[in-house]
Write a structure and sequence with these properties.
Number of helices: 10
Number of strands: 9
Low-confidence stretches: none
Radius of gyration: 20 Å
Order of helices and strands: EHEEHEHEHHEHEHEHEHH
Structural class: alpha/beta
CATH architecture of the largest domain: 3-Layer(aba) Sandwich
């Protein structure tokens, strides 16, 4: 008996960075789909590292450090190098960020129940005292929600940019070819940055009419809000903000539509 493959005959665009695409790619393949890897994000070390290093040299003066993504973890330790360092208490957003931290031999002291900035901030601030010092390590495109909420409490939150997010040069040509040849059935967005980079390419190449019938899946409400704000219809957005949950929700969407005998969009 053949396994149930609900994504059979669907070509699924994966827009996240190369180093983070493996799990989503495997999940799509496991369910019979064809993954199309076009990374719309590439991550680099910050240009002006002197300022970053100065902040990292002061780590022992902070009560907490916040890491909001796997990239934040990896680039923080890349910047720290092999020098011995004693980190303050560590707060992370998301199970994947927690796993990345463990790979470097550290355990998170705080993980929120909600994997978005607003939920994190509302839970985390209860741990702070007036005068507590917090360092937020993040990417250049991350929102200021967490720092703003912490600073309102009488604690202080400094931000340090440990990586930059850019659009890979070669990805635009590849994406345009796939869209024009109508090779994409489903688009997955794993961040607001992937949405915005995708739409930059669509607008530059005047491809708006080509994507009207494509299924849109977003990993969580922030990416979904960005997509909706720019006029995209979001079909799938899971309650748990992981790629596994996104694929599960995508499958439910497709099965439900097929059972009704209608078109998917």
């Amino acid at each position: 008996m053949k396994p149930f493959q609900p994504l059979k005959d669907y070509q699924v665009l994966i827009t996240r960075g190369k180093r983070q695409a493996d799990g989503l790619k495997a999940s799509v393949e496991k369910n019979g789909g064809t993954p199309l890897l076009v990374p719309l994000l590439e991550f680099t070390l910050p240009d002006r590292r002197e300022e970053v290093q100065q902040r990292l040299d002061e780590l022992d003066s902070y009560d907490w450090i916040i890491l909001t993504s796997q990239n934040g973890v990896e680039f923080l330790f890349a910047l720290l190098g092999k020098r011995p360092v004693r980190l303050p208490k560590i707060a992370v957003i998301g199970s994947k960020t927690e796993e990345a931290l463990k790979r470097h031999g550290y355990v998170a002291d705080f993980i929120p129940s909600q994997f978005v900035a607003e939920g994190f901030a509302s839970e985390f601030i209860s741990l702070l005292q007036p005068g507590s010092r917090v360092l937020l390590a993040k990417g250049n495109l991350a929102r200021a929600v967490i720092a703003d909420e912490i600073n309102k409490t009488g604690a202080s939150c400094d931000e340090v940019i440990v990586y930059h997010t850019v659009l890979p040069d070669e990805s635009e040509r590849k994406l345009v070819q796939l869209i024009v040849s109508r090779k994409i059935d489903i688009i997955t967005f794993t961040s607001s940055s992937t949405v915005e980079h995708f739409l930059q390419i669509i607008d530059r190449n005047k491809l708006g009419t080509y994507i009207e019938s494509i299924i849109i899946a977003c990993i969580g409400p922030i990416a979904a809000k960005t997509a909706s704000k720019h006029g995209l219809t979001v079909d799938v957005c899971p309650d748990v903000y992981t790629t596994e949950a996104m694929v599960e929700e995508l499958i439910r969407f497709i099965v439900k539509k097929n059972n009704r005998g209608g078109t998917l969009k």
